[in-house]
Design a protein that fits this description.
This protein is α/β, with parallel strands linked by helices and about 230 residues long. Helix content is about 40%, strand content about 20%. It folds into two domains: about 120 residues, 3-Layer(aba) Sandwich (Rossmann fold), CATH 3.40.50; about 100 residues, Winged helix-like DNA-binding domain superfamily/Winged helix DNA-binding domain (Arc Repressor Mutant, subunit A), CATH 1.10.10.10. Helix 6 packs across helix 7. It is elongated, with a radius of gyration of 19 Å.
Length: about 230
Amino acid sequence: MSKRILLVEDEPSLLDLVKLNLELDGNKVVGVKDGIEAIKRFKDEQFDLVVLDIMIPGIDGLNVCENIRLKNTEVPILFLSAKNSAEDRIAGLKKGADDYLTKPFNLEELQLRVQNLLARKGNAAATVSHSIKDFTFGTNYVNFETYEARTQNGKFTLTKKEALLLKLLIEHKNEVVSREKILQTVWGYAVYPSTRTIDNFILSFRKYFESDPKNPQYINAIRGVGYRFEI
């Protein structure tokens, strides 16, 4: 059965070249040229692999990768990038990528890496994911697969956006997560409107999970920067 690959590359000639070669290997390739379209297509369709340039318009590849990882911890992601320092490769892998290939690259090497990642995915059914599936803090419990939450006030179900935002904060616990990063990762915004959307979500979290919402223990705002989940 052919595999479906999402290819994200803003240089038209390279996009066409890579797409053609991956299709010659029997894959179905969907090519897009910016981060916003990449997030939309990944949300709406099923893919077996993502090949992702870092320096793309709209939302950069690192944030696209992080957005994908919040929703899917298993799909292989291969970065293509002209950024070739060790620090760049480490940054990409820390965002959740499985492999990193620097430009210019050999097409045969790209095809082999793609084949290896697809084969690894096929054998990964029993692999334990490193992304958190649930989390307990204080008297609170959240399951990020079912969106179920339990607190001292009882059980309820989070919305998908609430679950994504809370998961982002918890996966970066004790770190400040900027408003821009939240809007990019959870909402897919390429520009940052003047909005109280995040503030309203944070207020809801405090009502759900804090024993004293006016003096939060877990979810704190860092004025002018963003939010931090502390534990």
